[in-house]
Amino acid sequence: MIPQYVKDEIDKRNQKFDLENHKIGFLGNDESEKGIEDDFQKRCFEWFSQMFLETFDPRWFMSFSVPNGAMMGGNPKQRMINAVKFKACGLKPGVLDIVTPVQAHGFAGLFTELKVKNNKPSEEQIYWCKLLTWQGYNCQIVNSFEAFQDLYLWYFSRE
């Protein structure tokens, strides 16, 4: 959960910096990914590896994932211990799944959130997208592997 004081500060900056007009992309189609998000993410990173091996372009190697609650594992007590530890180490709710620190098409980098079935982005994810686009990043929420591939093929294409 984003603390209220952070939301208040974001709302102030919304007025000052016009965060509302920063575009957040929603890519996909009616045939969204089935199953669990972890499987979708594994498929995406397997494709990154394949593209790197085919092209030897280091940009395909530079994306990485951000840990989230699904990675805590264990019983409820262990998950709580891990949650406290991760939060103390800087884990923040709502950060998007994949970070691509590559400048392209006028953007500082690309942040991608993967969604399966009819899942929608959380309030925290929307706030992160607004803040990141305000800082010059491209943020996309993707619900199909084909849309994910199209996004990265476009992003890594020459301008």
| Shape by Cα distribution | globular
What is the strand content? 5-15%
Number of helices: 5
User: How would a textbook summarize the main sheet?
Assistant: 5 strands, mixed
Give the C-level CATH assignment: Alpha Beta
Q: Give the class from helix and strand content and strand pairing.
A: alpha/beta
Question: N-to-C terminal Cα separation, in Å?
Answer: 38 Å
Number of domains in the coordinates? 1
Strand order of the largest sheet: 1-5-4-3-2
Short précis:
With 159 residues, the protein is of the alpha/beta class. The protein has helices at 4-17, 37-55, 76-88, 123-134, 145-155; strands spanning 25-27, 64-65, 98-100, 110-114, 138-142.
Description of the structure:
- The chain is built from five helices and five strands, in the order αβαβαββαβα.
- Helices cover 43% and strands 11% of the residues.
- A five-stranded mixed beta sheet has the order 1-5-4-3-2, with helices on both faces.
- It has 159 residues and is α/β, with parallel strands linked by helices.
- The protein starts with a helix and ends with a helix.
Keyphrases for this structure?
Trna Endonuclease, Chain: A, domain 1; 5-stranded mixed β-sheet; 159 residues; alpha/beta; 11% strand; globular
